[in-house]
Specification:
The chain has 150 residues and is mainly alpha-helical. The protein is built from seven helices and three strands, in the order βαααββαααα. It folds into two domains: 107 residues, no CATH class; 35 residues, no CATH class. A three-stranded antiparallel sheet has the order 1-3-2. α2 packs antiparallel against α7. The longest helix is centred in the first third of the chain and has 28 residues. The radius of gyration is 20 Å and the shape is elongated. The two termini are 35 Å apart.
Length: 150
């Protein structure tokens, strides 16, 4: 899952954006990037507070990538299991090898008991990225409004 931040819209919005000075456009683009960094930081905090933290691998893969002018930024994990933590899973039997290390670090002799629980219950969602975006988006728009009003 990736969250994208930037300014896009209908023809009227695009027309109004063309009338903004280059200085303001640069400020707006800077705010987009700063807000993306805030989402990244909040997502990492959310993982810790939700106890979705083992070795910190998922948190370490949450990256911010932006367009060269910083008008658009994407925030999200590169770890392939990131969406499973965010959204959870339905009951299924996971590959035991994928859970062996986790099971050993948490006092299990084998991953089989964990696999059986996941097969029975699935994995509950522990959203971290969408709540981070929602925590930042209002401040982002308020800063954009302030810049546009100057």
């Amino acid at each position: 899952m990736i969250v994208t931040m930037g300014l896009e819209g209908n023809k009227e919005l695009q027309k109004q954006l063309k009338n903004i000075s280059k200085k303001k456009v640069k400020e707006i683009n800077g705010e987009t990037y700063v807000s993306a960094l805030e989402v990244q930081k909040k997502a990492k905090e959310n993982l810790k507070s939700a106890r979705s933290w083992d070795l910190g691998n998922l948190s370490g893969t949450i990256k911010v990538e932006s367009s060269p002018d910083r008008s658009i930024a994407e925030i999200g994990p590169t770890a392939p299991y990131g969406p499973y933590v965010e959204f959870g899973t339905r009951p299924h039997f996971p590959p035991p090898d994928a859970l062996e290390g986790w099971a050993k670090r948490h006092g299990f002799e084998s991953a089989w008991p964990i696999c059986m629980v996941i097969a029975d219950r699935g994995i509950p969602a522990k959203p971290y990225l969408l709540p981070a975006y929602l925590a930042v988006v209002d401040r982002f728009f308020n800063r954009l409004k302030r810049i546009a009003a100057q």
